[in-house]
Every structure is written in C-alpha cells, then in structure tokens.
Amino acid sequence: MIRLIKKFLITFAILLALLSLFSGVAFARAGTVNYEYHIGDNFLGVVHGPTVVRASNGDTIEITGSGILSVHNKSVSGGGTFVHKDSSGNVLGNGTWTAVQLLSFKSYGNGVPQGTPEEFEGGLALIRVHLSPGFDAIMQVDCLLGNPPAGAEEGVRLAIQGVLNFNKEISGETLYVRLPS
Known about the structure:
Layout lengths: L1 H30 L2 E6 L11 E5 L4 E11 L4 E11 L5 E20 L9 E13 L2 E9 L11 E6 L4 E7 L2 E5 L3
Antiparallel strand pairs: 1-3, 1-10, 2-3, 2-9, 3-4, 4-5, 5-6, 6-7, 6-10, 7-8, 8-9
C-alpha cells in the first residue's frame, strides 16, 4: 500500500512539473508578440504610399517607413522619411524619422474577415519618434484590419511637440504583420 501511494505521489509530482512547464511556455509565447509595421512603404504592393496627414493650418506631411515593434517589452525599431509641405504644396522641409519608444499598442485582430492573410493585422500604435533635423513627436499608426473601433481612421497622425499637430488623415495605408513566435 505504501509503495502504491509513493508511486502515485511521484507520478502526481511529475505531472504537476510538466503542467507548470508547458503552461509557462504557453504564457511566454502569448506575451511575446512582435509585429512588422508598414507606413506607406509599398510592402508587397499592399500598402501604397506615402501616407499623408494634414494640420489645422493646411500644412501636410507625407510619411513612409517601416520597422518592428514588440508588445511584451514595449520596444520598437525602424524609421523612414517625411516631407513637410505648406497648404499650397511648397516643400517646407524633409528628412528622416526614427522610432524611439513604443508607448502603446492595441491589436484589432487579423485581417481574415477582409480577405487578407491571417498574419496581417489591424491595430493602433503610439510611438515616440525623433524627426531629423531636430524635432520629437508622437506618431499614431492606425490600421483598420480586423475589428477596429467605430470612428477609427486608417493612417498616421503626427504631433510634433511644440510645433504642429498633424491630425487629419488624408490618404495612405498602414499594415501590421504578426511575426512568428
């Protein structure tokens, strides 16, 4: 009888150890979500650029770029280019932008309902960026695949700290591609 109880306890302990091991792996996979993001960069001919957004004074900014963001550790890399124009279309400035910090990301789910591959997802990211030459900004990147909330608009918004708030999406597309875990 004691031998049977020992066998049972050993088997039970092994099962508990295996269960905790596999649930830890599942949790780690669920927490490690990485995406490529595309902003008007002609990715696979799906995203057509550039993305254009307007400020209240009529100025526009054209933005292209791409990179990778990691939801679990809130990291981001990548960058692209921008062209700033006045309301008449005259170029006021241009340069590059670099992703500095992922502030937040919310997935809207995959784009299967819209007929895209399941790794194509919609979502909303807020990214702190640095514009060269010399400005910091918050970039909002919104892709409407999946199940976006009512009122969401495809495209980018750019709030340049102390300068202009480009907050009216005009044209362009964005995309998130979920990377394998």
